[in-house]
Design brief:
Layout: H1 5-8, H2 27-60, H3 65-200, E1 206-210, E2 213-217, E3 222-223
Antiparallel strand pairs: 1-2, 1-3
Length: about 230
C-alpha cells in the first residue's frame, strides 16, 4: 500500500505520539522479594542440597538412607556426649588450673620467704663472723696484755729473787761472821771458866752452852783447850 508523504513524515501540525513515563521501582517490593528469595534458599534450597548431599554420602558408603541416618544420629549422640565430656573436662581442667595457679602463688610466696630467710641467715652468719673476729681480736689483745704482764711480773720477780738471794748471801755472811765471833767469844769464855775449873777437876776436857750458860763437861763435842 502506498503511503502518503504526510504519513511518513508528519508535519509540525500533526500531533506526535506521547511517550509513556518510566515506572519507578518500589523499595518495599524489592526488599520483600529479596527476603522471599532468602527464605526460599533457607527452607527449600538448603534442605534439598543437604538431603542430596546426605544421599550421595549414603550411596558412597554402601548404606541405605535409613542406616546412614541412624549412623548420623549415633554420631550426633556421640558428638553431644563428647561435647558434654569436653565440657566436664574443661570444668575439671579449669579447676585444676586454678589449683595449679594457687599452688604457683604459694610456691612463689614460699620462694620469697625462703629468699628472706636465706638473707636473714646470711646476715646472721655475717654477724657471727664479725663477732668471732671481734672475739679473736680481743683474745689476741688480751693474750698480748697477759703475756706482757707476765713478762713484766716475771722480770720483776726475777729481780726480786736476785735481790733476795743477794740479801740472803749477805745475811748468811753476816750470820757467819756473828756466829764466828760468838763461837770465839764462847770459846774464850769457856777457856777462862773451864780451865780454872779443870784445876779442881782434871777430868774436865769439854764445854757446852746450856741455857745461855757455859757448862764444863767431862764428855762433849766442844774440846776444851787450856
Amino acid at each position: 500500500m502506498d503511503k502518503k508523504e504526510g504519513d511518513l513524515f508528519p508535519t509540525s501540525n500533526q500531533a506526535r505520539p506521547s511517550v509513556a513515563p518510566k515506572r519507578k521501582s518500589n523499595p518495599t517490593m524489592v526488599i520483600a522479594a529479596v527476603i522471599g528469595l532468602i527464605v526460599l534458599a533457607i527452607f527449600v534450597v538448603r534442605p534439598a542440597v543437604l538431603g542430596y548431599g546426605i544421599y550421595q554420602q549414603a550411596q558412597s558408603s554402601n548404606l541405605t538412607v535409613q542406616d546412614y541416618a541412624q549412623n548420623m544420629q549415633d554420631l550426633t549422640r556421640n558428638l553431644e556426649l563428647t561435647k558434654a565430656n569436653l565440657s566436664s573436662y574443661s570444668t575439671f581442667t579449669g579447676a585444676l588450673l586454678a589449683q595449679v595457679e594457687e599452688k604457683n602463688d604459694e610456691l612463689t610466696e614460699c620462694k620469697v620467704q625462703v629468699g628472706q630467710l636465706q638473707s636473714n641467715i646470711e646476715e646472721v652468719q655475717k654477724q657471727v663472723a664479725d663477732k668471732e673476729a671481734e672475739i679473736a681480736t680481743v683474745k689476741s689483745e688480751t693474750q698480748s696484755t697477759i703475756d706482757q704482764e707476765v713478762a713484766e711480773k716475771t722480770t720483776a720477780l726475777e729481780e726480786e729473787k736476785a735481790a733476795c738471794e743477794s740479801s740472803l748471801t749477805s745475811k748468811e755472811t753476816e750470820v757467819g761472821e756473828v756466829q764466828a765471833k760468838y763461837d770465839l767469844l764462847v770459846k774464850n769464855a769457856a777457856k777462862s771458866i773451864c780451865c780454872k775449873a779443870k784445876v779442881d777437876n782434871p777430868q774436865i776436857n769439854f764445854y757446852d752452852v746450856v741455857d745461855g750458860k757455859i757448862s764444863c763437861l767431862e764428855q762433849g763435842t766442844n774440846q776444851l783447850s787450856c
